[in-house]
Design brief:
The chain is mainly α. It is 63% helix and 0% strand. The protein contains nine helices and no strands. α3 runs antiparallel to α4, α5 crosses α8 and α8 packs across α9. The longest helix is centred in the C-terminal third of the chain and has 40 residues. It comes from Raoultibacter timonensis.
């Protein structure tokens, strides 16, 4: 599956992994900015970054991922107000995710596609946590990424990977990955949509939002049917953990990032009584499935064979 990073000289491999980590941190910083602007109803294509409290424009010194937050001790260089820890945590997590993807998939088209997907899922997590919505732009970006890269993917000889169930009939090229992706998207997106509609019909209560259903369709495209089901089950467990943590902490992560005093849109009253957003759980579970889903399923199936 990989263009083995371990076949490269250790010094070069370390250098490449550092570059990948820096890229991941930079993308985390970008997704922080993108999500903040989407939540605040601002343009994501124009305008300089600025402190939401004092309105001072930020320079390169303020925008170095991780380093700037640490050097400034988590405070704005101008007004000395605290910068939410969420920003640096996102940068660290994205750096780690990028490195993990390269370690699992090497420098391949899969790694590129999954890195883009990780960025999309990061944006989904941040926006959904603050607004309980998943913008269609993220969904379209995910579909476009899969559609552009699936033609260059293949099925590895061993393990449970996207396309593995169809490799016997269609070979180890892109075709089984394409078929499995479509099957996974329809199974997760269509299946959950049908279940959600039935649940609402019986209980007269709202279940999953449309954004969650569309996000599951996108993750199904990337994971395929078997891994997609594993990811859905994992998302339920992650969702329970997130709900438990948030109930204990008394709020959503990042709820202090935008409020009236910050010059942001504030938190609508209706959000305080709504259910825990499921988008972050889907995002976390999808990334974990990409990284550990195949060995976990291989281990599980091995128990019965």
């Amino acid at each position: 599956m990989t263009t083995s990073l371990f076949d490269i000289a250790p010094g070069l491999a370390t250098y490449l992994l550092v570059l990948v980590a820096v890229l991941g941190a930079c993308m985390g910083s970008f997704m922080n900015c993108l999500a903040w602007r989407l939540v605040g109803g601002q343009s994501v294509l124009s305008g300089r970054s600025y402190c939401p409290r004092c309105k001072e424009q930020l320079t390169a010194v303020d925008l170095i991922p991780i380093v700037s937050w640490v050097a400034l001790r988590g405070r704005c260089r101008h007004c000395k107000k605290r910068i939410p820890v969420r920003y640096v945590l996102v940068e660290i997590v994205m750096a780690a995710v990028f490195v993990a993807i390269v370690l699992v998939y090497g420098f391949t088209v899969q790694a590129l596609a999954y890195g883009v997907l990780a960025c999309i899922l990061c944006g989904v997590t941040l926006v959904d946590a603050d607004t309980y919505t998943i913008p269609n732009g993220f969904i379209l970006a995910g579909i476009a990424t899969w559609a552009l890269t699936v033609w260059f993917m293949g099925v590895p000889p061993q393990g449970f990977w996207p396309g593995s169930d169809f490799a016997t009939q269609f070979g180890d090229g892109f075709l089984p990955v394409l078929i499995d992706g479509i099957a996974g998207g329809l199974l997760l997106g269509g299946g959950i949509l049908a279940f959600s509609l039935l649940f609402e019909q019986v209980t007269k209560r709202e279940s999953l939002g449309g954004g969650d259903v569309k996000l599951l369709f996108v993750t199904g495209l990337f994971l395929g049917a078997p891994l997609g089901l594993f990811g859905l089950l994992l998302a339920c467990f992650v969702g329970i953990i997130i709900a438990f943590v948030l109930r204990l902490s008394g709020g959503l992560p990042g709820s202090d990032v935008l409020n009236e005093s910050d010059g942001g849109p504030g938190e609508p009253e209706s959000l305080k009584t709504r259910a825990i957003p499921f988008g972050p759980a889907i995002a976390v579970a999808t990334v974990l499935t990409l990284l550990i889903g195949s060995p976990c399923m291989t281990w599980y199936v091995g128990l019965f064979m």
